Amino acid sequence: MNLKSYLEFGPAVHMALIEKKPIIALETSIISQGLPYPHNHETAQLLEETIRQQDCTPATIGIVRGKIKVGLTPEELNFFSTEADIKKINNRDIPVALVRGWNGATTVSGTLACAKLASVEVLATGGIGGIHREFSETHDMSADLQQIANTTAITVCSGAKAILDIPKTLEMLESLGVIVGTYQNEEFPAFWSRNSGCQSPLRLNTVEEISAIFKTSKQLFNEKGFLVANPIPVEFEIPRNIIEPFIKDSLAKAQVQNVKGKELTPYLLNSLNELSSGQSLISNIKLIKNNANLAAQIAKKLSII
Question: I need a surface site. Which of 93, 109, 178, 195 has the fewest CB within 10 A?
Answer without folding.
Answer: 195
